[in-house]
Design brief:
The protein contains four helices and two strands; from the N terminus they run H-E-E-H-H-H. The longest helix has 19 residues. Strand 1 and strand 2 form a beta hairpin. Strands 1-2 form a two-stranded antiparallel sheet. The chain has 95 residues and is mainly alpha-helical.
Length: 95
């Protein structure tokens, strides 16, 4: 879903978000494809891969109770750090 408050993504942002969505969930490791969650709305390079439940689910979702996040002692910066690490590792193996 695209918010009317976000500007459209440029080509680099679209490519980055596509790569993020191709990763398994950064919280529960459910297999891809994932949804992309930005820490700050519209800042596409802060996107992290989340399954639907860890993104918008009523019990585990970051936008709601985020229980699984608490159980695993995760926050958005930790998941973003792991996302960048996974993207970097993927690009290093394909280079």
């Amino acid at each position: 879903m695209h918010s009317k408050n976000k500007r459209p993504m440029d080509a680099d942002e679209r490519e980055h978000v596509a790569n993020v969505k191709s990763l398994s969930c950064g919280v529960c490791d459910q297999s891809a494809p994932s949804e992309a969650h930005e820490i700050v709305q519209g800042q596409w390079f802060t996107s992290m891969p989340l399954c639907r439940d860890c993104h918008t689910g009523p019990h585990n979702g970051i936008h709601f109770l985020h229980r699984i996040w608490d159980v695993k002692k995760l926050d958005e910066l930790k998941v973003l750090n792991n996302t960048i690490r996974r993207l970097y590792a993927r690009s290093a193996t394909t280079a």
